[in-house]
Write a structure and sequence with these properties.
This protein is of the alpha+beta class. It is built from 11 helices and 18 strands.
Length: about 450
């Protein structure tokens, strides 16, 4: 029977998304897991794959249009289907009202699948709040310009415009039907390097909004974005429901810094201290495989490969793209992969699978001069390593006082998965790798 394909909740807490581009056309044969479209949300560009074999019968939503999660977007004709089978699943008038919101259990499952980085400033992959979706389908309009026409824009364009205080009515759209796409906003910003003024209506609304109880009259009220709401909910849930415990180690990194200098003198790509840290974390998970696990509610799942989520700071918050099979990557390949993922994270172009999975996270604030901190776990992962700066400190060597370079790291662990002794064993394995960096290369 013909299959009606609906706009998926590609990332938790996403209630609408835009078809950035169709990767198939009417009449094309597709296989299960084959990509159908690129879907754009406020947080990422996601490649949406088919769950069925078949032939594309109709594309119900044109490229460039924003619709609510659950809205029908395409019809797939399966083997033996005729026109009557396609007609039977076609919604009246094409794209119709979105499907009912997923049940809470389904929403929680979607949230658990999406991974983001908790850190000193907690981060998490957005999660569904209440599981609700907008009642009306169709692209969301921007504020109407002076000529009275309505202009449409993608979710990521609206987020970027809000963050920069830009009234989209000032921006000319070059997308389908005059839709404002990201390149239009970037062109507008390039022509106006000085921050665009906040729209009068927005300024008036902000001025009219009552200040929170106890706030100074001169303070500023910052409205929460969807990502920030999700961060608050996700990390509150983690801190209140997951039994955290913390282990700290002080690692001598003089040999590591010396080795890094030698490598970077001849390497085509510069290797960072963070690259060594990511690699050492993966190797420690191989050394202590019992720690390479996640919490499954009624079971613990252990992994054969070290898939590491690395915290990346973006305009909207922190995301943690996952680097797969770190234990088998060379340092140069790892460095290139992390840099490429970090760049696309900041541009909002991560794919869905790049935000999913992973058994362990790393949050490094050493580059900001932070000596030591503790991070909040990102369930269902059982560990996150908070990395501080490498600083010169007094150390004792063979009973004599000396100066050494020390990096402090703190492991946050889920006591349901990792006991204290196991956590200590893993941290010792990591410290050994970092303090003897040649073992990272072999």
């Amino acid at each position: 029977m013909a299959v009606l394909i609906r706009m998926p909740e590609v990332l938790a807490n996403v209630t609408e998304a835009a078809i950035q581009s169709w990767l198939v056309g009417v009449g094309d044969a597709v296989a299960a897991d084959a990509p159908l479209a690129e879907i754009e949300t406020e947080k990422a560009m996601v490649e949406f794959a088919s769950e069925h074999d078949g032939v594309v019968a109709e594309l119900l939503v044109p490229a460039g249009e924003t619709v609510a999660v659950g809205t029908p977007i395409a019809i797939l004709r399966q083997e033996g289907d005729g026109d009557a089978d396609v007609d039977a699943v076609r919604p009246a008038g094409g794209a119709s009202e979105p499907a009912p919101a997923p049940a809470p259990a389904a929403a929680e499952a979607a949230a658990a699948a999406a991974v983001a980085a908790p850190a000193a400033e907690p981060v998490a992959t957005p999660v569904t709040e209440g599981g609700s979706a907008p009642a009306a389908a169709g692209p969301a309009p921007t504020a109407s310009p002076a000529d009275g026409t309505r202009r449409f824009s993608s979710p990521i364009v609206r987020r970027l415009a809000r963050e920069r205080g830009i009234e989209l009515a000032q921006v000319s759209g070059t997308g389908p039907g005059g839709r404002i796409v990201r390149r239009d906003l970037e062109a507008f910003l390039a022509q106006a390097p000085v921050s665009a003024p906040v729209a009068p209506a927005q300024a008036a609304a902000s001025a009219a909004a009552p200040a929170p109880a106890g706030a100074d009259a001169g303070g500023e009220v910052v409205q929460l974005t969807g990502m920030r709401k999700a961060i608050a909910r996700r990390l509150t849930e983690s801190k209140s429901t997951v039994p955290h415990f913390y282990l700290t180690a002080h690692c001598r990194v003089d040999e590591l810094l010396a080795l890094r200098r030698q490598i970077n003198e001849s390497a085509p790509r510069k290797i960072s201290v963070n690259d060594f840290v990511v690699k050492a974390v993966a190797q420690a998970l191989v050394d202590v495989p019992e720690a390479n696990a996640i919490w499954g509610g009624d079971h613990i799942r252990r992994f054969d490969t070290a898939d590491i989520a690395v915290a990346v700071s973006t305009d909207g918050g922190l995301l943690t793209p996952v680097v797969r099979g770190v234990e088998s990557l060379s340092l140069s390949a790892l460095s290139e992969t992390v840099a490429e993922l970090a760049g696309r994270a900041r541009e909002g172009r991560l794919k869905q699978h790049e935000l999913e999975g992973g058994s362990f996270s790393i949050s490094n604030l050493g580059m900001y001069g932070v000596d030591e901190f503790s991070a909040i776990l990102n369930p269902p992962q059982s560990g996150i390593l908070a990395v501080g700066a490498a600083t010169q400190q007094p150390v004792v060597v063979d009973g004599a006082l000396a100066v050494g370079t020390v990096m402090t790291v703190t492991l946050s662990a889920d006591h349901r998965v990792v006991d204290g002794a196991l956590g200590a064993q893993w941290l010792q394995a990591f410290k050994t790798r970092i303090e003897h960096p040649l073992t990272i290369l072999i």
